[in-house]
């Protein structure tokens, strides 16, 4: 018999679908087995493959035609499906290899829609191509085997069917063969019935997620709009006892009081809804709530809005500190004693505020400390102890600038950070001075731009500066005398500037920046422009987003000098980026090995990261020196805050921030640096929601604002959810805890919940693809023994057994509070799901 070309291709086409689909399923199962009971896993095992089997059967039928156009169409369809499956399975395997995590196709779709996002994806191309090649070769090798198995099976099943119809005819032959076939058919029917029954009785989660099959899960992701499928719809507060009116607090001065009503309207004159005296019809964006409620209850039209979105039928909702059941204020407590003392003794002018947000800045590298968990991991990578001295000498030089900024010592012997930085930073602050270093802080989100929103406090803070500008005419006054100098500062107008050496176009950051109130920015698009003032050839891109930070130096110098010339106050934001994956550094940077360098490159990622950390540490020193050189250091508050941490496989089974709830993604440094503020070491188990209230508190208490602005700032401080970090942090009040929520990259899939009042931590899944995770940070600060469970009931049982009743109660509260919080966020952000 002649075998045509397309004929010989068929087995391969089938195999191209079968091999990647099964490889993908094997990996998928492997990633989930650790949290399932082995017994149930074995019982339901056959049901995990139902979709694949059906798919293979359809493919086989499409290919089992020998002639005509239909045959070609069938082959084309199977070929196309095979290619998609191959590509998807290779991506999945490559992604697992790089991050240890699972790809989610709808998230991949939205990253792929963004040109800068595609660069991010392409950076992981090598492992994907390797996986693809491997699967391709394997498909080729197994092609004939797979086809013959399928053919035999179908011959058995379909043959038995046709046999049955011919059996009644006289002269039926091949009795033996027919018996064999009938058994094949019977077995198939019995197996199908058993699998079907198991499918019916098994619980839908997590098994439906586990049964997902390529390429069907891709089509599903493309067609179905992702939405959170965990029910959070109940909007009443889950712990109503805490809202008892006996706990209510009366308004006092700028404090508007606390009287949560669980959704009912507050029918009392004790908590008047007042419009602040400084409110006027033309308030900047972000202050609409007061602009609309003028006395004669007529909405004021003259809002500052250049690009209004279409309005819908919903009434605009705002956050209200009076009725927020979770709010705990600490503004009624005094400033820390040393701070009060210093402010009595001398002026601490804050003319300028610089907010440095640091990419992937883990608290344990800011500064790097001897005897930390990470230090131990590094030492453990060496087989003999002799290397310890040499590697410790290197590590002691990793983050001297961070040591000076935080006032925390790295703890390595014979070590003088001021000596290490003297080539690039003349540190002028006196011993015992330098500002407030906060320990225990967590990020509000492990996605940089969401974290940025938290840092600027829900789009709020920057319009404040516009507001301050609106209420003064800003004539300059420079005088040498100290009192007059403070006076001059207070009357200056603010200027905002955002700066980073990477692209501003990724994920619409440019739009976000404008909306948050940054009037101008310096970014890659600016550095790349030949007409820019400091454009030069030979700029070296160090990662897929852009250049090293140092390229912004001359522009920052201009910005500061310009502010000095025009006598304005600067709100300068700077985002460091070199510490982002793939942790590239300029070619002339002296890269070092911290971990033991084995030939497999086991620790390469972490090592690259530590080099990037050292690079950025050096840059921050240079940046601080720029403030000294331009003469503004003594009147500038520099706030350093990490956008999120960064997990490596040395820390957790899954690396990176993407859909990874591990604590190493959350711990970040927070420092309020000013050379004339006393050095304070503070602990607060809070999130960066506290950054803006603290900046306002500092501006007010250093008397750096004039009377009018002070009034406004005092009102606004009382509108924020976060507590001030220059006063003792209140971790609980009348039984209600200070909860912290962290949105896990990419958002909408997992939420991290902690409370300042308890050492526990819960990671809550928001879709059915993820597990619950619980840890006790007191006993297990580095989350090496996380409890995972697919449902709350199972989790509560395990937590109770291992950590006691109190911990289980906390988990229950945390879960209900978190669900309530999610609905509450949607309300205050005026977010309405389109059905
Ligand atoms: C179609 O299936 C039969 C078994 O049912 C098998 O013998 C035959 O070789 C198949 N044809 C092709 C083109 O694969
Ligand atoms: C530090 O100050 C000294 C003396 O003013 C100066 O010579 C030196 O260049 C400065 N170093 C840096 C890095 O600015
Ligand atoms: C500037 O300073 C002078 C003298 O110190 C004072 O009289 C004047 O009111 C100040 N102007 C402003 C706008 O503060
Ligand atoms: C930003 O620009 C607008 C209009 O150009 C101006 O009114 C406002 O004062 C500026 N704000 C800041 C903080 O620079
Ligand atoms: C800042 O103040 C310190 C001491 O208070 C002084 O030594 C230093 O020169 C001042 N720096 C600038 C830039 O004025
Ligand atoms: C912060 O949390 C840690 C770990 O749970 C705990 O040891 C510490 O006492 C807490 N600090 C404060 C101030 O609540």
From TrEMBL:
Q: Where is the composition biased (Acidic residues)?
A: 304-314
Q: Which UniProt keywords apply?
A: Signal
Q: Record's superkingdom?
A: Eukaryota
Q: Where are the transmembrane segments?
A: none
Annotated signal peptide = 1-23
Domain called Sulfatase N-terminal: residue spans: 505-699
Say yes or no: keyword Signal present.
Answer: yes
Q: Where is this region: Disordered?
A: 290-314
Q: Is Signal given among the entry's keywords?
A: yes
Q: One Pfam family, short name please?
A: Sulfatase
Q: Which Gene3D superfamilies match?
A: Alkaline Phosphatase, subunit A
Which InterPro entries does the annotation name? Alkaline_phosphatase_core_sf, GAG_Ulvan_Degrading_Sulfatases, Sulfatase_N
> Could you identify this protein by its name?
Sulfatase domain protein
Q: What is the species listed in this Swiss-Prot or TrEMBL entry?
A: Aspergillus sclerotialis
Higher taxonomy: Eukaryota, Fungi, Dikarya, Ascomycota, Pezizomycotina
């Amino acid at each position: 018999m002649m075998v045509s070309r397309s004929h010989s291709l068929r087995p391969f086409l089938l195999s191209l679908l079968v091999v990647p689909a099964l490889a993908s399923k094997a990996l998928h199962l492997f990633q989930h087995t650790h949290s399932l009971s082995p017994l149930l896993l074995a019982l339901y095992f056959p049901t995990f493959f139902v979709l694949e089997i059906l798919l293979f059967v359809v493919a086989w039928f499409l290919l089992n035609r020998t002639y005509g156009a239909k045959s070609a169409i069938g082959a084309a369809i199977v070929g196309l499906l095979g290619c998609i499956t191959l590509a998807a399975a290779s991506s999945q395997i490559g992604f697992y290899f790089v991050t240890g995590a699972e790809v989610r196709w709808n998230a991949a779709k939205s990253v792929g829609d963004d040109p800068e996002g595609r660069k991010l994806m392409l950076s992981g191309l090598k492992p994907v191509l390797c996986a693809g090649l491997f699967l391709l070769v394997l498909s080729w090798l197994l092609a004939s085997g797979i086809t013959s198995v399928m053919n035999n099976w179908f011959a058995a099943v379909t043959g038995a069917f046709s046999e049955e119809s011919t059996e009644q005819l006289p002269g039926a032959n091949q009795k033996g063969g027919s018996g064999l076939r009938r058994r094949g058919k019977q077995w198939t029917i019995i197996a199908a019935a058993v699998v079907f029954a198991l499918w019916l009785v098994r619980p839908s989660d997590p098994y439906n997620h586990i049964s997902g099959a390529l390429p069907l899960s891709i089509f599903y992701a493309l067609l179905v709009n992702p939405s959170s499928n965990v029910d959070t719809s109940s909007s009443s507060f889950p712990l109503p006892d805490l809202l008892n009116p006996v706990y209510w607090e009366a308004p006092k001065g700028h404090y508007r009081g606390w009287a949560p009503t669980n959704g009912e309207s507050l029918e009392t004159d004790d908590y008047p809804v007042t419009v602040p005296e400084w409110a006027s019809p033309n308030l900047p964006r972000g202050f609409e709530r007061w602009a609309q409620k003028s006395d004669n209850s007529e909405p004021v039209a003259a809002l500052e809005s250049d690009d209004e979105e279409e309005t819908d039928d919903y009434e605009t909702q705002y956050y209200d500190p009076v009725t927020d059941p979770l709010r705990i204020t600490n503004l009624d407590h005094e400033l820390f004693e040393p701070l009060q003392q210093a402010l009595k003794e001398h002026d601490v002018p804050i003319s300028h505020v610089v907010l440095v947000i640091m990419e992937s800045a883990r608290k344990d590298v800011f500064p790097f400390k001897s005897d930390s968990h990470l230090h131990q991991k590094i030492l453990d990578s060496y087989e003999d102890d002799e290397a310890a001295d040499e590697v410790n000498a290197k590590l002691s030089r990793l983050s001297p600038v961070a040591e000076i900024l935080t006032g925390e010592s790295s703890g390595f012997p014979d070590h003088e950070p001021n000596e290490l930085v003297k080539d690039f930073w003349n540190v002028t602050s006196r011993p015992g001075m330098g500002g407030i270093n906060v320990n225990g802080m967590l990020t509000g989100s492990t996605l940089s731009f969401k974290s940025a929103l938290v840092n600027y406090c829900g789009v709020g803070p920057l319009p404040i500066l516009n507001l301050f500008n609106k209420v003064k005419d800003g004539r300059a006054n420079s005088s040498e005398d100290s009192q007059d100098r403070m006076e001059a500062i207070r009357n200056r107008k603010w200027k905002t500037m955002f700066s980073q050496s990477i692209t501003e176009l990724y994920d619409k950051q440019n739009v976000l920046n404008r909306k948050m109130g940054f009037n101008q920015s310096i970014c890659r698009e600016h550095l790349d422009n030949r007409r820019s003032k400091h454009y030069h050839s030979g700029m070296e891109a160090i990662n897929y987003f852009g250049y090293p930070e140092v390229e912004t130096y001359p522009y920052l110098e201009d910005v500061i000098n310009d502010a000095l010339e025009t006598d304005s106050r600067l709100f300068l934001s700077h985002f460091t980026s070199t510490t982002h994956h793939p942790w590239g550094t300029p070619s002339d940077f002296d890269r070092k090995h911290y971990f033991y360098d084995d030939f497999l490159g086991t620790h390469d990622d972490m090592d690259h990261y530590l080099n990037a950390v050292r690079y950025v540490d050096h840059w921050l020193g240079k940046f601080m020196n720029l403030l000294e050189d331009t003469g503004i250091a003594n009147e500038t508050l520099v706030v350093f805050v990490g956008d999120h941490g960064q997990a490596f496989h040395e820390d957790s089974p899954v690396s990176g921030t993407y859909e990874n709830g591990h604590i190493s993604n959350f711990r970040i440094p927070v420092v309020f640096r000013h050379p004339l503020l006393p050095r304070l070491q503070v602990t607060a188990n809070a999130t960066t929601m506290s950054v803006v209230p603290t900046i306002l508190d500092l501006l007010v208490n250093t008397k750096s604002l004039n009377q009018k602005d002070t009034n406004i700032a005092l009102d606004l401080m009382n509108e924020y959810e976060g507590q001030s970090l220059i006063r003792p942090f209140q971790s609980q009040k009348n039984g209600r805890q200070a909860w912290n929520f962290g949105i896990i990259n990419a958002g909408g899939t997992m939420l991290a919940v902690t409370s300042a009042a308890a050492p526990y931590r819960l990671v809550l899944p928001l879709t059915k693809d993820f597990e619950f995770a619980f840890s006790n940070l007191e006993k297990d600060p580095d989350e090496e023994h996380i409890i995972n469970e697919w449902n709350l009931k199972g989790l509560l049982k395990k937590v109770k057994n291992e950590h006691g009743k109190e911990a289980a109660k906390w988990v229950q509260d945390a879960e209900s509070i978190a669900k309530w919080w999610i609905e509450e966020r949607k309300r205050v952000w005026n977010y309405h799901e389109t059905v």
